[in-house]
Structures are given as C-alpha cells and as structure tokens.
Amino acid sequence: MAYILIEEIEVGMVLSDALRSDSGQILMPEGLELTKKHIPLLNRWKIKGVNVISDDDINIDNVSDEKRDEAKDYLLTKMLWKPINNVEKDIFEMSLLHNLIYKGK
Amino acid sequence: MKLINNIILKIDEFPTLPTVYTKLNEVMAHPHASAKDVADVVSQDQSSAAKVLKVANSPIYGLIGKISTISQAVVYIGFNEVKSIVLALSIIEMFKDVKANSLLDPKDFWRYSFAVGVISRNIAIGLKIKNLEGFFINGILHGLGKLLFLKTIPDIYEKILNASREKNISVRKAEEKVLGISHPLAGQMLAEKWRLPKEIQNVIRNIYIGSVNDRYNEMVSIIHLSVITAGMLELGNSGDFLIPKINRQIWNDINLPEKFFVNNYQKILHEYQDISNLLS
To answer: Do A79 and B243 count as a contact with CB atoms less than 8 A apart?
Structure first.
C-alpha cells in the first residue's frame, strides 16, 4: 500500500482500501482501477490523496513467519507496555509492517 | 558539584529567541493585525521567509505549491501556525551547532521530532478536531529539553544516554539519577524563559504523563501518543531505546477510526520524509 497525492495518480493504479467520505460513506470501492475520469471526481470531493496497491505489498506477503516473529520480539523488547486494545494493536501492526518493509532491506 | 544548579544557570544564560519571533508576537498582540502585517515582519528575514513558504507548501498542510507569499500562508494555514513555524525554524537554527555523539546525532533527533509532529497532526485529523493549529509544531518542539542537554552538557549527556542503554532504563530516569533533573522539566524552564505559549510548555513538561493535572488535554495527550508511535516506527532517533508507557486514560477521549494507523501509515511516512528532507 502506498499513499499518493491526487497530482501523482497514474491511470491503472488500484485502490488498496475503499475511499470513504467524512461520514463514512463509500465513495470508491477497494480494488477500483483508477482512470482519467476519476480525477475530476476526487477533486470535486476535495480528496487530497488515496491509498493504492504498491510493490511493497507484495514484499510483505512474502515475509516468512520467522521474520515476522523476529520483528515482533524485537518491538516487544523495546516496549514498556503490551498492546491490549484495538488502537494499541493497530499501532503495533503498523510498526511491524514498517519494520518488515524497511529494516529487512 | 551540584549539576542541577549548573543546568539552571545555563538555562538562565541561554540566548534569547531571534527578533523575528518577538516582533511577530508584538504584531499579533494587536487586535487588528492583518495578514500583511505578519507578512511584513516575516519577509524582513529573507531566509526564514523562504523556509516558511517551503514548510507551508509541504504535504502536511495539503496545499502543495499553492502558497507563494507569506500573506497567503497566513490566510490558508493561520496566523498562529505561521508564527509557530517561524518559532520552530528559529529553534532549529539555535541548536544548529550541537555536535553528534556516539549515540545521538541532533539531525536524527530533529527527524524523530518531525515524525512526532506529523503523527500528531494526523491523529488530530483522524479525531476530526476542527482547529489543527499547533499539533504539528508543538509535536516538533516537545523534546526541547533533550536538545538543551545535548548543547549545554554534551559529554555528561553522552554518558547519560550510555547509562540508559546499559541499565535498560529510560533516558529520563538516567537524567534524574545523574543530574537531579530530567529533560521535560529543564525543557519547560527554557520554554518559560523564552515566554513560549503555555500550550507548548504543557506539552514539553507533560510529554510522558500524557495529561495535565490528571486531566485529558487534547494537545498534550495526542502528542504523548505520537511520541510513543514515532518511537515504535523508529523514525529518526529520540535517544531512547525503550518506548514509553501509554497513559491509558487517554483512551476515554481518543476514539480513532478502526485501523487508523495501518490505513494512514503511508500518508504519515510520505509527510515525514518530505518534511525531513526539507529541514535537514
């Protein structure tokens, strides 16, 4: 997944998440392939950027369980807390993702 | 030897903020101050004016390339935010001569601080907070005390950072043991000497507490969470290996959308990389 600005959209990019309005209504579904006609719509909705599928996604899927566990253990040794609720688990999941993408390289 | 007295003296003797910031304060204290008045003050200092425009056009404010004058910056991102950007740029400049030691390079500390600012503003957006002023810049400035120590007691501070690693304790605890004062308090004292807004002083002082007088404080609590998140992501270097505890009382007031962080990860990273490249 990569966050890109409207100015950077290229035809053929695919949304990695559904695009939602402030009220949560789905404006564009997950997996939608972007074409030229979508740009004016995004501008009209004042959307600044979207999440699209990127090469990094493929790398993450290929990560072995060992690598994932190693990264988890590493993070947990640094943390003076353990994730107990959804937001804390969300922060942990993002950090794991980041660690696997960047520290693995 | 009383190190704490030495530090208090050093805070007292610390240089004052550049005149561009104090002049901005004077101009903005006037009830009828206009965007032009602010622009006139900022524009007198050409190098800071150019940098303010760069920051205002960075992805953080979502106005990329749309702002070409300081007056426009004032109109689009607000009087206070422009003043805060000038303040942050001034402080970055004041600590420019700080040397890296074996455990912490001030450039990496600033990168970490930018990450905290970016994450804070994104959390505020995620919480649908109307007035976003301050989240980015207060996030950047939360660690003023660590910079103060790096600049004024470089050798002792390297030993403190070392001790925190060896004993597996937070840098703050190591500071308390060696100095008798830790960076949140020392940082707030410097902020007070500079007469910075109470809001920034609260952030600096209560950054690990995550509340003010045991009560949720939107600015302090969000930046507290951002410090933890930036530590988890290891963006830049905070100087701490350990990631601080979360004040879990904040969850009574912070209700983020489901999977907020995973969904905003790339956006945060993009904004962080852009601002880091711009200012370091």
So the answer is: yes
